[in-house]
Design a protein that fits this description.
The complex is a heterodimer.
Chain A: E1 2-6, H1 15-29, E2 34-38, H2 45-51, E3 59-61, H3 62-67, E4 90-94, E5 99-104, E6 107-114, E7 125-131, E8 137-143, E9 149-155, E10 161-167, E11 173-181, E12 187-195, E13 201-204, H4 207-221, E14 230-233, E15 251-255, H5 274-281, E16 288-291, H6 294-304, E17 309-312, H7 320-324, E18 337-341, H8 350-361, E19 368-372, H9 378-394, E20 400-403, H10 409-413, E21 418-421, H11 430-437, E22 441-445, H12 451-454, E23 461-464, H13 469-481, H14 483-496, H15 502-518, H16 520-525
Parallel strand pairs in A: 1-2, 1-14, 2-3, 14-15, 15-16, 16-17, 18-19, 18-21, 19-20, 21-22, 22-23
Antiparallel strand pairs in A: 4-5, 5-6, 6-7, 7-8, 8-9, 9-10, 10-11, 11-12, 12-13
Helix pairs in contact in A: 8-9, 8-13
Chain B: E1 2-6, H1 15-29, E2 34-38, H2 45-51, E3 59-61, H3 62-67, E4 91-96, E5 99-104, E6 107-114, E7 122-128, E8 134-140, E9 146-152, E10 158-164, E11 170-179, E12 182-193, E13 196-200, H4 203-217, E14 221-224, H5 230-234, E15 242-245, H6 269-272, E16 281-284, H7 287-296, E17 302-304, E18 327-331, H8 340-351, E19 358-362, H9 368-380, E20 387-391, H10 395-404, E21 407-410, H11 419-426, E22 431-434, H12 439-443, E23 450-453, H13 458-470, H14 478-486, H15 493-498
Parallel strand pairs in B: 1-2, 1-14, 2-3, 14-15, 15-16, 16-17, 18-19, 18-21, 19-20, 21-22, 22-23
Antiparallel strand pairs in B: 4-5, 5-6, 6-7, 7-8, 8-9, 9-10, 10-11, 11-12, 12-13
Helix pairs in contact in B: 8-13
The chains are: A alpha/beta, B alpha/beta.
GO molecular function (chain A): glycosyltransferase activity
Organism (chain A): Apilactobacillus ozensis DSM 23829 = JCM 17196
Protein name (chain A): Lipopolysaccharide biosynthesis protein
Chain lengths: 540, 501
């Protein structure tokens, strides 16, 4: 079984989750078994993953696992389904607060919260706050979107959480954590208890230890002498110290979704990306390392000389149907148009892109730029301020348009000619890959990792030196002045996108899975099962 | 069916429980269906009951009932052979016969307390966090299964409790929160009881419901042995008869029991007041107390039924008066109201005559403070070699004490009956006590089966003991004993109880 390890999945996600979903579908289409492992408790996780077309049995949440709730038929509980153990209750709906107040003889029995309409229009119960007969709030039950009581917070008399308990579907406690004051008097999680079906109990310090227990159980459950379990650490911090320490052997994969260094312009000397510091220091404990691009693979090999095999596997996949669509010629797109789709954040340096455009404006008066993405207000709105400064400097007020986030990226990409990028660093850049698959021509800084590989300089766009927006401006002028070159490069974009076809990416994965299988016998040979005879006989 | 309502069958019991246990055994012998019914949680109740000669079908405990475990048989649950500890990752480190630590990577994560009176059986497991706080405790039933988990508030007070059925499914939840700023149980909730949750504010409300459920299964007569349960039983909605059995005097000054100046005990007032109509009558162990009560509550049925029964025609064993040792036996609660300090002073006086006299104190102390006080007094009075604190005793050990004693004593101010008096008589052992109502005054005959001494007269008390010890013939006539125990003969038992139906 192949496992992809992450923390959680929400309504909005980052590139790692998008890459995982694409990979999941690739594995599914190629009939390779897999499960997406999530560490965090999240009562809406199945809802959002189902919405992304991931099926329940493709999801392996740690809490679900302990609760034996991986596959649960959804039951939409209404307030009337909650049994308070009392009769003669009054239910007052407070739709503005998404909750009911439940009373008996004017004394509060419970507040019953329900999911908002984005989840369910049926006032499906999301949480129940219980009060005892003396008016104390003593527990809060949280419900999964699938309709079962998933976690209970038990309160202290002075209204703090003392214990969190996760129950199985029969109401048996299976996992607990406690809150106590530390030496400085601050409440924190101070222990976890795992209660097994056979009655055995494990007490551990923190959630990492719980994850370790969980991964061991998963590895045991899916253990096969035919082929190894493959654990791909998409978020290394979930389990990096557990590599390669699971009781039974397995195949461990470190997945570099981002640059391994803080300053990707200095791949040989820069401080390490904090997320990858521990994994790289322990890199030889892994069986394989995945980089998203060939350039990153070379950099990693050169600097760290790892003994683990390093595979380049694209994190983006262009779906087959995209290749079947008719190509849209440049003449049918908005003339002299540039598109960028990304979070409008300081590290994206959109001020540089606007400046390049400003330089080009002298020659291409009707040049335009459309930006789609969330506006990031960090650093006192620095991103927006830099854009505004460049707009003012080059008088581009009517030519730069900032739009919000869009879900229909594909349709937009068909309407523009050039895709621009001037960011500090990238892990891959899924949006740019999609843009090329829609025939856009790239204009980008030489940025590690992704843009300088997605765009082959002079073939499907131009790659200029990092920070040289003037050069970028010149390239824009050249492209918009030479319609034939623009069209030729657009054709190349469509062609080069085949590097990321389902077939190409699956072949990359296949080579990793083959490596896992080829080395399995060797790993098995060194492994011994623990003693399990003669340990439980009871003396008379 | 008769239901004998009590708080508990404890590890250490008082006369109230001994009376109920004795009654239960006699009912069974007489083919009358009955059960002791208890309210308190007691994970050892099956072991404690067995120690006191009861079978599993002689009692039903409320928690056992709701846990569905009344019929569960004992199985071994030895720590070293238990699945509870994953021995590939945790070490069990024995500390002594009573406890072991569970260690993980060198840190103590739990402590296992071995069940009392067993070798290595799990009693309680206390779990710790990484700061060393107790977080929760698993309480094991003496029959070998996990009975409940107690979760603690961060300050160490009890937080909430979860009780399980035999399969580990939670069946009851008890919440401990503030009542006027102090932590008390604030809710008892039955989970999925016949498909429903049921919420109660107090343990007594739950107990009332429990009794109703028992009566729904099988109607019967309720005999409540505990004044503390008067209200809970009164609230039981039923047509079945309810009686209150009083095992003590009814007035604060027993001498005013028949006087209009007598002050009825606070905890009994509801019985004779607002809950009177809920009860069909009150049972007391002596005719004297019956007539006193009847005088004041003429429209309330007051019955006299023996509190404790024995074979009224044969001795259990012959007293062993031939031994040279001089033994005084006190058997009962070691509480302040039983005036153990008086017994020490009396023993000191006897010691002047018999240097080697021994006072055997059999029973359990009411508190650590009282125990310390008595022990200090023993030291101060230089009675270390003359007083033996025997602890709580049952069975052969207890029989032997009665048999070997020259005299059994009591220095309390009042007794509804006094079981040790009757038991002493069944061994033909004299009983010396203050001349107090109701039991001693009615059944002790001077010079025949013991002596009655005016309250507080230590010299007289000691003189009576010395006399018995010196004179072979004193209090040595069978008749004096048989006449007394005949009043408690179990051959009359069924007849007596036929009154209350």
């Amino acid at each position: 079984m192949n496992f992809f390890i992450n923390t959680t999945y929400n309504e909005k996600n980052s590139g790692i989750e998008h890459a995982q979903i694409k990979r999941a579908k690739l594995f599914r289409n190629n009939k390779a078994p897999f499960k997406l492992i999530f560490r965090d408790w999240n009562p809406k996780e199945h809802f959002y993953l189902n919405a992304a077309d991931i099926k329940d049995d493709e999801i392996l949440n740690m809490f679900d696992f302990f609760q034996k709730a991986e596959n649960v038929e959804t039951k939409k509980n209404n307030v009337m389904d909650i049994d308070f153990g009392l009769t003669g209750l009054t239910y007052n709906d407070e739709p503005n607060n998404n909750r009911y107040i439940v009373l008996k003889d004017n004394a509060i029995v419970a507040r019953v919260r329900y999911f908002d309409e984005s989840i369910s229009k049926d006032k499906q119960v999301s949480a129940v706050e219980y009060f005892d007969g003396f008016g104390n709030l003593y527990r809060v039950d949280f419900y999964d979107t699938r309709g079962f009581q998933s976690m209970v917070e038990w309160y202290t008399p002075d209204n703090k959480v003392a214990t969190d308990v996760w129950y199985d579907l029969n109401g048996k406690p299976v996992l607990e954590t406690y809150y106590r004051k530390n030496a400085k008097g601050k409440m924190e999680q101070s222990a976890w208890k795992i209660i097994e079906d056979d009655g055995s109990i494990k007490i551990v310090d923190n959630i990492d230890d719980v994850v370790f227990e969980f991964l061991n159980k998963v590895n045991d459950k899916y253990f096969s002498i035919k082929e190894p379990n493959v654990f791909v650490l998409d978020r290394t911090n979930v389990a990096d110290w557990m590599v390669p320490k699971l009781h039974r052997p397995a195949y461990y994969v470190m997945h570099l979704h981002n640059s391994q260094v803080g300053d990707p312009q200095k791949p040989d000397t820069s401080i390490l990306n904090n997320n990858y510091e521990f994994p790289l220091f322990t890199g030889n404990d892994y069986d394989a390392i995945i980089t998203a691009t060939e350039k990153q693979r070379k950099d990693v090999m050169r600097r760290f000389k790892p003994l683990a095999k390093v595979f380049t596997i694209a994190v983006g996949i262009v779906p087959n149907e995209q290749f079947d669509k008719p190509r849209i010629p440049m003449s049918e797109r908005k003339p002299n148009s540039i598109l960028a789709t990304a979070r409008i954040a300081p590290e994206k340096q959109f001020g540089d892109l606007v400046s390049a455009m400003g330089i080009a404006k002298k020659e291409i008066p009707d040049i335009s730029l459309d930006l789609y993405g969330y506006l990031d207000h960090s650093q006192n709105d620095r991103a927006k301020k830099e854009i505004d400064k460049a707009i003012k400097k080059y008088d581009l007020k009517n030519q730069v348009h900032i739009h919000g986030y869009t879900t229909d990226v594909g349709k937009i990409q068909d309407q523009y000619q050039v895709y621009g990028l001037t960011s500090v660093m990238e892990g891959f850049n899924l949006a740019m890959m999609e843009a090329t698959s829609h025939g856009e021509v790239g204009a980008t800084y030489d940025v590690n990792y992704g843009p300088n590989e997605l765009i082959q300089d002079g073939e499907n766009g131009y790659v200029v030196d990092y920070g040289d927006y003037k050069a970028l401006g010149e390239k824009l002028i050249y492209l918009f002045k030479h319609k034939d070159v623009l069209q030729k490069m657009s054709d190349a974009s469509y062609d080069l996108a085949k590097r990321y076809s389902e077939e190409s990416v699956w072949n990359e994965w296949k080579s990793l899975l083959n490596d896992a299988r080829e080395n399995w016998d060797k790993k098995l040979k060194d492994y011994r099962e623990p003693i399990n005879q003669g340990l439980n006989q009871m003396e008379e | 069916m008769y239901y004998f309502v009590n708080e508990n069958i404890f590890t250490f019991n008082s006369g109230t429980e001994f009376s109920a246990i004795n009654r239960q055994q006699e009912f069974k012998k007489n083919g009358m269906k009955s059960k002791i019914v208890t309210r308190n949680y007691n994970g050892r109740i099956h072991a404690d009951a067995k120690d006191h000669g009861l079978d599993d079908d002689d009692f039903i405990s409320m928690y056992d009932f709701f846990q569905g475990t009344t019929g569960v048989k004992r199985e071994h649950n030895k720590l070293r052979y238990s699945d509870i500890v994953d021995k590939r990752n945790y070490h069990i480190v024995g500390i002594n016969n009573n406890s072991s630590l569970i260690k993980y990577h060198g840190n103590t994560v739990a402590k296992v307390e071995i069940a009392p009176g067993t070798i290595g059986e799990i009693g309680t497991i206390i779990y710790y966090d990484r700061f060393g706080n107790e977080t929760s405790k698993d309480i094991y039933d003496s029959r070998g299964f996990k009975s409940k988990t107690v979760y603690l508030h961060p300050n160490g007070e009890t937080g909430h409790e979860l009780l399980y059925d035999i399969d580990g499914k939670p069946v009851m939840e008890i919440t401990h929160m503030f009542i006027n700023g102090k932590v008390f149980p604030t809710m008892y909730k039955l989970l999925d009881y016949n498909g429903k949750n049921l919420r109660f504010n107090t343990e007594d409300e739950l107990f009332t419901f429990f009794i109703q459920e028992l009566l729904n299964q099988k109607e019967g007569v309720i005999i409540n042995d505990r004044p503390s349960l008067i209200e809970a039983i009164a609230n039981v909605q039923t047509n079945c008869h309810k009686y209150q059995f009083l095992h003590g005097p009814h007035t604060t000054d027993v001498n005013l029991g028949g006087s209009k100046y007598g002050k009825v005990f606070e905890n009994l007032r509801p019985l004779f007041g607002k809950f009177k109509s809920a009860y069909s009558g009150v049972i007391v162990p002596t005719a004297e107390q019956q007539s006193e009560l009847q005088k004041f509550f003429s429209n309330f049925n007051i019955y006299n039924i023996a509190d404790f029964t024995v074979d009224g025609e044969n001795f259990v064993d012959e007293n062993n008066q031939q031994t040279d040792s001089k033994d005084i036996l006190y058997i009962g609660r070691l509480f302040e109201d039983r005036h153990i300090d008086h017994l020490l002073k009396i023993t000191q006086l006897v010691k002047a005559e018999f240097h080697d006299v021994k006072l055997h104190l059999v029973g359990y102390f009411g508190s650590k403070e009282y125990s310390d006080q008595i022990k200090k007094q023993i030291d101060d009075m230089k009675l270390k070699d003359n007083v033996i604190i025997e602890g709580y005793q049952l069975g052969d050990k207890k029989s032997k004490l009665y048999k070997n004693a020259d005299v059994v004593v009591s220095a309390g101010n009042a007794d509804a009956l006094n079981i040790s008096m009757i038991e002493a008589f069944t061994y033909k052992t004299p009983f010396v006590s203050y001349d107090v109502k109701y039991g001693p005054k009615n059944f002790v005959k001077n010079g025949k089966n013991g002596y009655l001494v005016p309250q507080g007269k230590f010299n007289d008390f000691a003189a009576c003991i010395i006399k018995i010890m010196q004179l072979q013939d004193d209090c040595n006539d069978e008749k004096g004993y048989l006449e007394a125990i005949h009043n408690f003969d179990f051959h009359n038992f069924a007849q007596q109880w036929a009154q209350v139906i």
